[in-house]
Amino acid sequence: MSITFSKTVKTKKDHSCFTCCETIPKGTLTEFSWGNDGVYWWRTYICDPCLLYISENDLLEDGNWLDEGCVDEHRRWAAS
Length: 80
Ligand SMILES: [Zn+2]
What we know:
By secondary structure, this protein is α+β, with helices and mostly antiparallel strands. The chain is 24% helix and 32% strand. The protein is globular, with a radius of gyration of 13 Å.
């Protein structure tokens, strides 16, 4: 079972974006998500450009699931 929550937060320190692996600078409004994949609890930050990319490219079509670096990979794939 997957339980996912998310909310927009202002980051209090630098974080790495889960889906593009780029740095989200401190003080940026960012989507913070957390959930349970059945085994592990996970929590992650996703930057605004990634959220837009994810919705524009339907990267959530396989249920509500995102792999680490998936936006970065999809961009490379789309550019090749
Ligand atoms: Zn990102």
